[in-house]
Amino acid sequence: MSTSEIDASVQAELNRLRESIDNIDAAVVHMLAERFKATQQVGRLKADHRLPPADPARETRQIARLRQLAQSANLDPAFAEKLLNFIIAEVIRHHERIADEAGNGDPGRTGGTTGAVTGA
Question: Staple 75 to which of 14, 63, 70, 82, CB 3.0 to 4.6 Å?
Answer without folding.
Answer: 70
